[in-house]
Amino acid sequence: MSIPPRERDILRYNIDTAVLAVHALSFEKGVTDFRLNQAGIIRAMMEAARQKIFIADHSKFGRIACMNVCGIDEMETVISDSSFPEELRPEF
Q: Rounded to two decimals, what is the model's pTM?
C-alpha cells in the first residue's frame, strides 16, 4: 500500500510532542473524525511523535464520527475544558 505524500512527509520528522485536535472521542471507538482527508495525517503525526496529546472540548466526548483514527488504548494524554462530564472521567 502506498503512503500518500503528506503522510510520508510527516513520517520523516522526529516529533517530540504532537498536539492533536480531534472531533470525536468515545470509549467504544476511540478517536474518530469526520474529515476524510485528515485521519491519515493524524495517524502519521501519532506515529512520528514520542508523546501524543489529544485536545477536545467537552462536546466531542461520547461521540462517534465516520472515520476511525485510533483506539482509546493509543491515547496517552487528553486535555479538555472545565465542562468535561465527570461521569466520563474514569473511561478517559
A: 0.85
